[in-house]
Amino acid sequence: MLMRKLFRRVSFTQAIGCRAYGTGMVPDIGQPTPASHSQLLREGEITPGITSDEYISRRRKLLDLLPEKSLAILAAAPVKMMTDVVPYTFRQDADYSYLTGCQQPGGVAVIGHDCGFCMFMPEATPHDVIWQGQIAGANAALEVFKADRAYPMRKLKEILPDMIRGSCKLFHNVHTAIPAYLDLEAFQKAAYHGKVKNVSILTHELRLIKSPAELKLMKESASIACQALLQTMFHSKTYPYESMLSTKVEYECRMRGAQRMAFNPVVGGGPNGSVIHYSRNDQTLKDGDLVLMDVGCELHGYVSDLTRTWPPYGSFSSPQEELYDLILQTNKESVKLCKPGASIRQIHNYSVEMLRKGLKEIGILKDGGSSLYHQLNPTSIGHYVGMDVHDCSMVSYDRPLKPGIVITIEPGVYISSSFDGPERYRGIGIRIEDEVLITGTGYEVLTGSMPKEIKQIESLLNNFCHGMGRESHNSIRTASS
């Protein structure tokens, strides 16, 4: 009887276009809004923690960087398919998300001095709505994302060519470029005359220095990752399998509010720890092994990244402790160099000299030759972090650091089982990675709550028993004060 009454009052379109929250009907635009998800967003926020005013400010700053009579064209990330009809979980392109707040595929954003902020949005058919649900259309672009102009995607071929012809230069996202505008005669003509550039040279400049709202999310993301990794460390003897530890850390991150992992966790037990981006995670941990875990989570578009290495069975061996102490001291000394005016390149060069000297003293390096050292550690000391794990890739590591920039410090040594050196060190991989915020006076280690001292780690592992170290899994509303 109740269903009959509901169907009399609400049309099919209204029924699938709205959801019931409490006693009212709230429009469904395909992503959370303050009305539909009050536990996540406050009034005025487009995404959790980031207000419409901040998105408007970002676009104004982009216009300040755009030459006169220039146009920025950004397409949303494509949907990637797991099988022919089943997609992978969608993740928005960082540049598109940074400027629009739209977390859905199928759109194109155009920003220019003359046109302002224009969005071309996909249209959902009744069939699409039944199978995939509602999406944000042109109306949502105006009302939610605060576009100056908005059109259905089918209008792009009519409207965008005139915008392009009236522009001296075009900047577009080469990683998400789509035929809808690439195939336009006006775009191809501009490209032929060398007028098309990569928009990331501008957007990465904007994204490099984080706002207070962004830093709040990044700190919470780092906190979640630290809590999750600590819980995983506690259980590493109970679950001595790489696959289980990978599952455990993801579970702990998600239960604390993370939407996804920032990348596939690296869980390298024993000699697998010497494979820098090891991702198979399919081996058993043995007594005497170390396990290297490189993890991070994503919270409302902002990621974390940290690595710890420890002995699941409770004690470092003598050669493991020698190498670990060298990496730890390099980590701590490198962190001390993180301050305004320094650069990642300078910190990297310092760390290389420190590691090279230490490896020579231990007897692993017979000389300071760069080629042999490079086999043991071919990585940079760190990278920028933000909306992407390797954030702002267009920005040089020679750039002087400024307050609001977040980087990683991650010295390591990776000695394969076939290494032609002292046998006692073969098959050992160690990395200690922290996430560091540059402040006005120096630095703040965002992952500082995660233990890394040898005695601290051994004590925690050996004193842990069932029920210790457990924390509540209440979801965290990170935009709260």
TrEMBL record:
GO terms for cellular component: mitochondrion. Its cofactor is Mn(2+). Gene3D superfamilies: Creatinase/methionine aminopeptidase superfamily, Creatinase/prolidase N-terminal domain. Transmembrane segments: none annotated. One of its GO terms (biological process) is proteolysis. Residues 50-179 form the Aminopeptidase P N-terminal domain. Pfam families: AMP_N (PF05195), Peptidase_M24 (PF00557). InterPro entries: Aminopep_P_N (IPR007865), Creatin/AminoP/Spt16_N (IPR029149), Creatinase/aminopeptidase-like (IPR036005), Pept_M24 (IPR000994), Pept_M24_MAP (IPR001714), X-Pro_dipept-like (IPR052433). It comes from the Eukaryota. Keywords: Hydrolase, Manganese, Metal-binding. One of its GO terms (molecular function) is manganese ion binding. PANTHER family: XAA-PRO AMINOPEPTIDASE 3 (PTHR43226). Belongs to the peptidase M24B family. This is Aminopeptidase P N-terminal domain-containing protein.
